[in-house]
Amino acid sequence: MSRVLIIDDDADACELFSFVLTQANHDVVFATDGRTGLDLFRETQPEVVLVDIFMPRMDGLLVIGELRRQCPTIKIVAVSAGMMISIGTSLLDLAPGAGADVVLRKPLEPHVLQETIARLVAGG
Asked: What's the rounded Cα separation, in Å, for the pair 13 and 86?
């Protein structure tokens, strides 16, 4: 069993992701804003962090950068429905440059989320 931290301001998304990952035998904790998520990261020491891009108090790209600074080996999954910043480019496209290992677009298929987390936990 691994611990997964979900940082997403959408409470429904947190509940859904938590349910899906709990069904796959992960221990899940979540925060609904970036600053609280960083505090919870330090407290819970998860193996994987799922980070939404658009959040109050601290956007996901900043959260990803700070997570990477605090723990260079942490596995990070960036998620978002995607907001275009220019033709053909969304903020989600910037997540790998900020330090995300994987980028997933919402809405997520449950099996895709489970397989992604399992692969990252296994070291992939």
From this structure: 26
